[in-house]
Amino acid sequence: MPAQAAPPGPAGVAVAHPTYVSIPMEITVNRPATEVWKRVGKFCDIGEWFQVPCTITAGKDGEIGAIRTIGNEVLVGKTELSYTYTQPVREGRPYNLYHGTLEARPLTATTSKLIYTLVFDNSMLADDAAREKDKAQRTVRFTQALQNMKILAEGGTLPPPPARGGAPKQ
Q1: If you ran DSSP here, which 8-state letter would residue 45 be given?
Q2: Among 75, 87, 98, 164, which one has the highest count of C-beta atoms within 10 angstroms of its own C-beta?
Q3: Rounded to whole angstroms, how far apart are CA atoms 82 and 75?
Q4: Residue 151 DSSP one-character state
C-alpha cells in the first residue's frame, strides 16, 4: 500500500504532514490457530522468533499495559488470537506513531495464517527513496520473523541467528 499524505493537521500537532505506511505480511501455518498462538503469541515470544532478548519490564506478559524491553513496546490491544503494541514517544526523537499487530487467524481445522501488520509515519525520512528503503528493510526483517514463527509453530527448531556486526560468534 503506498504511503498516504494526511491532510494538514490542527495547530499544535507534532507532525503537520505525516505519511502513514502500512506493511501487511502473512504466512500460512500447518497448525490450528489456537496451537499457533499458544506457541508464538505471548508478548515476549518475540524474543525467540526475532532471536533477541526480551523481558517484560512492567505489567504481566499478555496483559494490556505490559511493557517489553524490545523497543519499550507497550501492549495496547488484544483478542484471543491477536495483540497490538506501540512504541512510546522518546525524548529527542520524532514520534512516528509506530504500531504492530500480530494475529493468528484460522483457515481450516488444521491450518491457519499468521498476519503481522506494521503501521507508522515515515515522513521524517529524507525523501521517497529513503522511505522505500526503510519500508523494504522492515518488510525483510518481519517476513523473516514470520518464517521463524512458522517453523516454531510447526514444531521445528530455528537455525542460529546470523552474527551481528560481522564478528564471528564465539
Answers
A1: G
A2: 75
A3: 11
A4: H
The predicted model scores a pTM of 0.87
Instruction: Burial-class residue 145 by CB neighbours within 10 Å (0-12, 13-18, 19+).
Output: buried
Q: Which fold has domain 32-153?
A: Alpha-D-Glucose-1,6-Bisphosphate; Chain A, domain 4 (3.30.530)
pLDDT of residue 93: 85
Render pLDDT for 57-107 as a digit per residue (tens, 0 to 9): 999 999 999 999 999 999 999 999 999 999 999 898 888 999 999 999 999
Residue 106 pairs in a beta bridge with 112
What is the DSSP code (8-state) at residue 98?
-
CB atoms within 10 A of CB 66: 21
pLDDT digits (tens, 9 = 90+) for 47-69: 999 999 999 999 999 999 999 99
**Residue 147 CA from chain centroid, whole number:** 13
Between the two ends of the chain, the Cα-to-Cα distance in Å is 42
Q: What is the pLDDT of residues 17-28, one digit of tens each?
A: 899 999 999 999
Domain ranges of the chain: 32-153
**What gap in Å lies between CA 98 and CA 93, rounded to an integer?**
13
